[in-house]
């Protein structure tokens, strides 16, 4: 049993995001007193360059602020621990940032006061908008500004940042200026950081009681793994959902093994259990730590391994490229990033034309989807406004992964083009959405996809070659010689003169068809057809035909229109007419 007299600490996760070299790690270091095992880049590559390559974690503890004492109710905490999640700013490491952003309560966006917003700063801001509700902007490196112009430069940049944030969910958020490491990373540590005490006060004021829920399956994001001889293997990470206690059995899905929890620590203090939002070290029975550097640990059997998925999808407005069906994107889902082929579709609502399909994303809950609905294939994502200019119509996408991914249900999905130029200034985040349906069967194309009713509209056009009788015409140019005409028997067609008929079957060997007109041909249609066939007739001297052409305007051929739709994933390739 835990001793209830032990001081209780509320953990609050603060993500430190920003462009590479904006001084995020120095800021975390200045703020921090206790560095957790992961902290400050254990990556040799990072040490050389002074750049964070992995999510570094560190923490500092303050007495619980007064405003939190009231909101904590029965849960008696006496201190507040800020866990700083230092996310990399390297563009190629966007996937790591997305991995860290899922556990963040408040985001600190670090901006170099001299350079202002840069491409990655904007990408970090976007990720923040998708994953976090509060933000503080930190203008770092104020020591680089000449002292006589310092305040003016800070004011100018503050104004610019407020303008940038105006149309985001962080409108009006606090902006504070600091110098985390005066003199830069090489300088001796004698110079005191500036503005850090004020920043800690601001963090305390901005902290809130995060929503933590111990119920449901355990899902823990792992960031490090190492062995302790004679003890077992220690996994460190953050609990994204559920809770965990000593003696629980947990699954490591990447290795397809289960292990027993021997002990749990939070910042080097042993605890009997931990829950959502907590940063923990968990010692389990031995396995090779090299096999699990990054990934997840969960309640046995609670995660799905997917070969494909259906997601709700929304384009990120700063993405300049096209979102086309059949294109490939990097998909970050759960804690993995994998290449995937994408196909977009929207819903056909009863009584509406195909072009006017889905309700807007705002109208329809983004997490709704049903295999019973009728959908319409889109060649590319629709950015047109829905009726009345109320946002884009609700759209979905089928993702087909190049390798299976393991992830929790209903998780956030982000699509990006991480292969585009790292140093270019274009946004590489393309779309985001929610995972709604996962396909766990390797043969999903045969088992599940046929249930997905996505249709494509098809049109064919031909011409009436001649009339056989008042109720039958022969059509040409609708089909190729090799087409299996049996598939089309019974389908309705319309003539350009207004009559409707149906295809009775083939005529001859060259792809011509026989069309039955149940109401019979109109008189004027017969005249039109007889005049055009007479003109083609062999008899008559040249001057005669020229005379008839003078008196009669050129006869237009009568065209035949066939409209139908085909369900993309229907194994029988059936044609359907509404």
From TrEMBL:
Q: Where in the cell is it found?
A: Cytoplasm; Nucleus
Bias (Basic and acidic residues): 544-553
Q: Which reaction does it catalyse?
A: GTP + H2O = GDP + phosphate + H(+)
Pfam families associated with the record? eEFSec_4th (PF21131), euk_SelB_III (PF21208), GTP_EFTU (PF00009), GTP_EFTU_D2 (PF03144)
List, for all copies, the residue spans of the domain called Tr-type G: 9-211
Keywords annotated in UniProt: Cytoplasm, GTP-binding, Hydrolase, Methylation, Nucleotide-binding, Nucleus, Phosphoprotein, Protein biosynthesis
* Obligatory cofactor(s): Mn(2+); Mg(2+)
Top-level taxonomic group: Eukaryota
Q: Which residue windows are coiled coil? A: none
Annotated spans, Disordered: 525-558
PROSITE patterns attached to this UniProt entry: G_TR_2
- A GO BP term, please? selenocysteine incorporation
Keyword DNA repair recorded: no
Q: Name one GO molecular function term.
A: GTP binding
**GO cellular component terms, A-Z:** cytoplasm; nucleus
InterPro entries assigned: eEFSec_C (IPR049394), eEFSec_III (IPR049393), EF-Tu_GTPase (IPR050055), EFTu-like_2 (IPR004161), P-loop_NTPase (IPR027417), T_Tr_GTP-bd_dom (IPR000795), Transl_B-barrel_sf (IPR009000)
Entry function: Translation factor required for the incorporation of the rare amino acid selenocysteine encoded by UGA codons. Replaces the eRF1-eRF3-GTP ternary complex for the insertion of selenocysteine directed by the UGA codon. Insertion of selenocysteine at UGA codons is mediated by SECISBP2 and EEFSEC: SECISBP2 (1) specifically binds the SECIS sequence once the 80S ribosome encounters an in-frame UGA codon and (2) contacts the RPS27A/eS31 of the 40S ribosome before ribosome stalling.
**Name of protein:** Selenocysteine-specific elongation factor
